[in-house]
């Protein structure tokens, strides 16, 4: 019998690789517009899970675990300024989900 936790962990690692190595071109704002979550959300969820398990984790540590590098480095290397179109789409998506 396969351990479900091991499968979930493998899928999560693959998601992180996909978002950070294969599709670093996809901006967080675009993820938020289309999926309602982004890399920062994953970092928050990771930190919350760690804390629930009794393993305190700082926001910076959680971001580094998700991004695979310090967040400031990620932003400098990959993050672009959001366009007016992206900001409008984000606001519309927030209104639909709020």
UniProtKB/TrEMBL annotation:
Domain SMc04008-like: 26-91
Source species of the chain: Pseudoxanthomonas wuyuanensis
Name the record gives this protein: SMc04008-like domain-containing protein
Extent of the signal sequence: none
């Amino acid at each position: 019998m396969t351990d479900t936790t091991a499968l979930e962990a493998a899928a999560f690692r693959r998601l992180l690789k996909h978002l950070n190595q294969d599709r670093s071109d996809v901006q967080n704002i675009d993820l938020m517009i289309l999926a309602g979550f982004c890399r920062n959300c994953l970092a928050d969820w990771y930190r919350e899970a760690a804390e629930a398990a009794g393993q305190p984790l700082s926001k910076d540590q959680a971001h580094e675990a998700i991004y695979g590098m310090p967040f400031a480095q990620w932003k400098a290397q990959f993050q672009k300024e959001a366009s007016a179109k992206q900001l409008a789409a984000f606001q519309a998506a927030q209104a639909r989900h709020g």
